[in-house]
Each structure stands twice: as structure tokens, then as C-alpha cells.
Amino acid sequence: MQTLITNWQWRDFTYGCDVPARVLMEEYSHLDEPEVWDSFFEYRGRWYHLSDFMQANGQFSDLAGNWHGFHADSFFSGVLVELSDDGESYRVATVIA
Prior knowledge:
Oligomer: single chain
Shape: globular
Number of helices: 1
Largest sheet: 6 strands, antiparallel
Strand content: 35-45%
Number of domains: 1
């Protein structure tokens, strides 16, 4: 059984210019295309970019929500992201196995 932890709130993505420079240099220096610089968000004290997530492909269909991406934090937990229809905002959750 998987446990889902979320507040179900939609939030807007953060632009790269608003992400701390240290984070960009240490973790995202490989992102050099302008079109990907608007897909950052901070969750539980850590910065993420949509490129960090693999496509969920219905893997979490037994959980409430329409989860589009998954990022593993450990063997037993990870972060799920759901994108709005217009792609401008997201919902995020922690999933624990």
C-alpha cells in the first residue's frame, strides 16, 4: 500500500532567474536552453526541475490525482508531480511505499 502526502494546492512554476544561483550552478548547469528555464519549483526545501522527473505512465493510477511525473528520493519514497492542463502550474506530493 502506498501513502500519499499532499495539500492538493496548485502552484505556479518558478523561473530560472528566481532560483538561487548556487542551485543553478551546482545542479542545473546542464540546462542551457531558454525554453526549459520556466519549470522549476521548490518542495520541502529542495529545488526541482521538470527534467528531474520520469514520466509516470499510469504507474500511480491507484492513488488520487493524475500524476504525470515521478522522482525517486529513496528506495521507499519519491516525489510526484501533476501538471495543469495549460502547463503553467503544478501540484506536488510525496509518495511512500
